[in-house]
Design goal:
Distance between the termini of chain B: 30 Å
CATH architecture of the largest domain in chain A: 3-Layer(aba) Sandwich
Structural class of chain B: mainly alpha
Largest sheet of chain B: none
Shape of chain A: globular
Number of strands of chain B: 0
CATH class of the largest domain in chain A: Alpha Beta
Radius of gyration of chain A: 24 Å
Strand order of the largest sheet of chain A: 5-6-7-3-8-9
Number of domains of chain A: 2
Radius of gyration of chain B: 20 Å
Number of helices of chain A: 9
Largest sheet of chain A: 6 strands, mixed
Order of helices and strands of chain B: HHHHHHHHHHH
Oligomer: heterodimer
Helix content of chain A: 10-25%
Helix content of chain B: over 70%
C-alpha cells in the first residue's frame, strides 16, 4: 500500500451570508437602491464564517472522524470535500472517485420502484449504468429488500428507504467516502452490517471521512479524528486522544471564554448563551448494544457557555420523533425547585426514569427560551438515538405508559 | 491531485465531466418522463394534446375569423408543422427553468454536474416531441402530402432546436436559482412570444419593413423552416437557417458558460 494523500484541505474557509440574500429580483432591485442611498459601504450584510481556515490531510486507506458541537463546521467541511459547495478561501484537492452520503437516498423518487431508484441513485453517486448492473445483485442482497424491488418507494417504510440508500452508496467503492451521520438510523442489525461494510471498504484502501455525534461509533470506525469548534480545528490526531480532548472540552467548566463573535445567527444565538452540545446518556449496557430500552433511565445533558450571569434560565428540552413530531417537552420552569444562576461554561442535566418512549428513532432539541414563549435565545441538538419497546416489541405512538389491563365487571342491575 | 478548487475548469473539462455522467443524464431524463407520465391521467397522450389543441384553436380562428393565406397548405397541417417545434421549446423551458429549484435536495446534498437537471428536461421534451411528431406524420398521410427530399434537413433542424433549448434552459434555470421570482417570467414570456412568432399567421402577412426584426427570433427561424421543409418541399431560407445556427451556437455556448460560472453558488443560494 502506497502512502499518498487522497484529500487535502489547505487554509479552507467558508463564509455564509445571513439574512438578506436577494431571493428575488425585486429584493435585488430594492437592495441596489438602498446601497445607492446609503452610499458605498461594500458588503455589509451579516455573515458567518462556518470554517475559518482549516488544514487537513487524509492518506489513502485512513479514516478520519469529524467531531465537535453543532455549528462547529463538520458538515460544511464534508460538503466542501464532496465538491457540493466551494470554499470561500483556500484550496481543496481530492484524488479519485469521491462518494458523499450526506443524506441517504438523495434523488430517490417516491413514485418510482425500488429497482428504478437503485439505478438512479447509483448514477447520482457517479456509477455508470454498466457498473450498477454488475453490482445490482450485491446491492439488493445487502439491502435485503429483494421482495420489494418492484414496489414504488412511497410504500417503503423509512427504515427500508435508508437501507436501500446505504446499500447503493456502500457499493460505489470510491476512493474517498464521506459519511454524515447517516448511520444513526435503521435497525441495529442493519447498522451492524453497515459498520462491517465500512470496515470492509477500509480494508480495500478506501479513505473515509465520518461525521457523527456518536463518539463510540467514531472511535470504532476511525483511525484519527479532528475536533472542530467554531470553524477551527481544536484538536487533530489519533482518534482516542481527540475524543478524549472533546469530552474534556465539553465538561470543562473553567474553559477560557471564547471571544464574542459578532456574526451570531439572529434568534438562534443571542450572545447571551451558547448551547454547545446535547448528550443522551443511558446505562452502560445500552451504550454497548447501541439502543435504549423503553424501561431504561436516561439522562439528557445540555452543555452551555454563558456570556454573563443568567438567573433562573429557562431551558426546554424537546424529544423529537424521527419525523420531527414533539414526543414530549421538558421545561425547567415547570420545576419549582429549579433555582440556578448560570455563569461561564457548564452543563445542566435532567434525568427521566424510566424513559417510557415507544420504539423508534429520536433526537433531542434543547433551547434556552426568553420571556416570550417560543423565542429561543439558544438552540442545540443531540445526535439521534434509538429506543426499543420494553419487551422487545415496538409499539405505535411515542409513549408507553405503565399500565395493566383489567376486565371491567358488569355493573350491578344490567 | 485533481481539481484545485479555485482554478476555474475550462468548458472542455466541464463537458468531459458531463460525458462521464451521461448515464445519469439518460436516467434522469427517463425519470422525468416516468414521473410525469405516471402522475398524469393522460400519460403520453399529453405530449400530443398540447400541440393538437392549439392546432385546433388556430384552425378555427383561421377558418372563421381571419383567413390567413397558407399557399395551399391545409390549416391543420400548416399549424401543426410550426406548433410541433414550438411545443418542444415551451416544454423544454417550462420544465428546464425550474429543474434546479425543484430538485433542491440533489443540488445541496449531492455532487454531480448540475447541468444534468436542465438538460434532462430538454431530453424529456425531445421524447415528447417524437411522440407528437407521429401525429404530424399521420396528418401528412391524411392530407396525402408526399414526402420530399427536403425532409433530410430535419436532423439538422432538430439539432438546432435542441441547442437553442439547451442554451435557454441552462440560462433560465441558473437565473431562477438566483432570483426566484423570475420563474414566473418564463411562462409569461413564452405566452407573449407565441404571438410574436409567425405561427398563428404566416410570415407573408407581416409587413415587409418589420419582417427582418421578427426573424431575429431564432425560434421563428426554426418554425418557419419547419414549414418550408415539410409543407412546401422547399429548402430552408439561408438567412433563416443561418440565424438559427448562429443563435444556437451562441445560446448553447453562453448558456453553458454562464451556468458553469454560477454553478458553485447554487448549493448555498438555493
Amino acid at each position: 500500500m502506497s502512502i499518498e494523500a487522497i484529500a487535502r484541505l489547505r487554509g479552507v474557509a467558508k463564509r455564509y451570508r445571513l439574512g438578506r440574500t436577494h431571493a428575488s429580483l425585486r429584493d435585488a432591485a430594492s437592495g441596489v437602491f438602498e446601497r445607492l442611498r446609503q452610499g458605498r459601504k461594500g458588503d455589509s450584510s451579516p455573515h458567518l464564517w462556518a470554517l475559518k481556515g482549516i488544514d487537513l490531510e487524509l492518506l489513502r486507506g485512513r479514516s478520519l472522524g469529524l467531531i465537535g458541537p453543532n455549528g462547529g463546521g463538520k458538515t460544511t467541511a464534508l460538503r466542501i470535500l464532496a465538491g457540493i459547495t466551494p470554499p470561500t478561501e483556500g484550496a481543496v484537492e481530492t484524488r479519485g472517485r469521491v462518494a458523499a452520503m450526506i443524506q441517504l437516498g438523495t434523488g430517490f423518487h417516491p413514485d418510482l420502484t425500488g429497482r428504478e431508484n437503485v439505478f438512479l441513485y447509483g448514477a447520482i453517486l457517479g456509477l455508470s449504468a454498466a457498473e450498477i448492473r454488475s453490482k445490482f445483485d450485491r446491492i439488493v442482497d445487502f439491502s435485503g429488500l429483494a421482495r420489494f424491488l418492484d414496489t414504488p418507494l412511497k410504500r417503503y417504510s423509512s427504515g427500508m428507504y435508508v437501507r436501500l440508500g446505504f446499500s447503493v452508496a456502500a457499493h460505489v467503492e470510491p476512493d474517498l467516502l464521506l459519511i454524515d451521520e447517516v448511520l444513526a438510523v435503521g435497525d441495529a442489525s442493519f447498522r451492524q452490517r453497515c459498520a462491517e461494510r465500512i470496515a470492509e471498504l477500509k480494508e480495500r484502501d478506501t479513505s473515509i471521512v465520518f461525521v457523527s455525534h456518536n463518539l463510540h461509533l467514531v472511535q470504532s470506525v476511525c483511525d484519527e479524528a479532528a475536533f472542530l469548534d467554531q470553524g477551527e480545528i481544536r484538536a487533530h490526531g489519533p482518534v482516542d486522544d481527540v475524543v478524549l480532548a472533546y469530552r474534556r472540552w465539553l465538561r470543562d467548566a473553567d474553559r477560557p471564554r471564547a471571544p464574542v463573535d459578532d456574526d451570531a445567527l439572529p434568534g438562534e444565538r443571542s450572545g447571551l448563551l451558547d448551547i454547545l452540545d446535547v448528550e443522551v446518556e443511558s446505562s452502560a449496557e445500552s451504550t454497548e448494544r447501541g439502543w435504549i430500552a423503553g424501561s431504561d433511565s436516561v439522562i439528557f445533558r445540555v452543555y452551555y457557555r454563558a456570556r454573563g450571569p443568567i438567573a433562573r434560565p429557562n431551558f426546554v428540552l424537546r424529544i423529537l420523533t424521527s419525523d420531527g413530531t414533539v414526543a414530549c417537552a421538558l421545561w425547567t420552569r415547570d420545576d419549582p425547585r429549579w433555582e440556578a444562576t448560570l455563569e461561564g461554561s457548564g452543563g445542566v442535566a435532567i434525568c427521566v426514569d424510566p424513559i417510557q418512549l415507544a420504539g423508534g428513532i429520536y433526537s433531542v432539541e434543547a433551547r434556552l427560551e426568553g420571556e416570550i414563549k417560543g423565542l429561543s435565545l439558544a438552540l442545540g441538538y443531540s445526535g439521534r438515538f434509538e429506543v426499543r419497546g420494553v419487551d422487545g416489541h415496538d409499539s405505535e405512538g411515542a409513549f408507553v405508559p405503565r399500565m395493566a389491563w383489567v376486565r371491567n365487571e358488569p355493573a350491578a342491575g344490567r | 491531485m485533481s481539481e484545485p478548487s479555485l482554478r476555474r475548469p475550462s468548458l472542455y473539462a466541464c463537458a468531459r465531466r458531463l460525458w462521464r455522467f451521461r448515464g445519469l443524464l439518460a436516467l434522469w431524463t427517463e425519470r422525468e418522463l416516468r414521473v410525469r407520465y405516471k402522475q398524469t391521467f393522460l400519460g403520453a397522450a399529453w405530449a400530443v394534446i398540447q400541440p393538437t389543441a392549439l392546432m385546433v384553436v388556430f384552425t378555427l380562428i383561421s377558418s372563421y375569423l381571419q383567413r390567413f393565406p397558407t399557399q395551399g397548405a391545409p390549416f391543420p397541417l400548416f399549424y401543426y408543422a410550426a406548433l410541433l417545434p414550438w411545443t418542444f421549446f415551451t416544454t423544454s423551458l417550462a420544465f428546464g427553468s425550474t429543474s434546479l429549484i425543484n430538485n433542491l435536495d440533489l443540488v445541496t446534498k449531492a455532487a454531480f454536474p448540475r447541468e444534468i437537471l436542465p438538460l434532462a428536461s430538454i431530453g424529456a421534451a425531445l421524447f415528447d416531441f417524437a411522440v407528437a411528431a407521429t401525429v404530424f406524420v399521420a396528418l401528412q398521410v391524411w392530407y396525402r402530402q408526399p414526402p420530399t427530399m427536403e425532409l433530410f434537413w430535419l436532423p439538422l433542424l432538430i439539432l438546432i432546436q435542441v441547442a437553442i433549448a439547451a442554451g435557454l434552459g441552462l440560462l433560465t434555470s441558473a437565473i431562477v436559482v438566483w432570483y426566484r421570482d423570475t420563474r414566473f417570467v418564463v411562462p409569461v414570456g413564452l405566452q407573449l412570444l407565441l404571438f410574436l412568432t409567425p405561427i398563428l399567421y404566416p410570415l407573408e402577412v407581416v409587413p415587409e419593413r418589420i419582417r427582418a426584426w421578427v426573424m431575429l427570433n431564432p425560434i421563428a427561424c426554426v418554425t418557419e423552416t419547419y414549414r418550408r421543409v415539410t409543407l412546401y418541399g422547399e429548402s430552408p431560407d439561408p438567412t433563416h437557417l443561418g440565424t438559427a445556427i448562429l443563435s444556437a451556437l451562441v445560446l448553447a455556448g453562453c448558456g453553458y458558460w454562464v451556468f458553469k460560472r454560477l454553478e458553485p453558488t447554487f448549493a448555498d443560494r438555493i
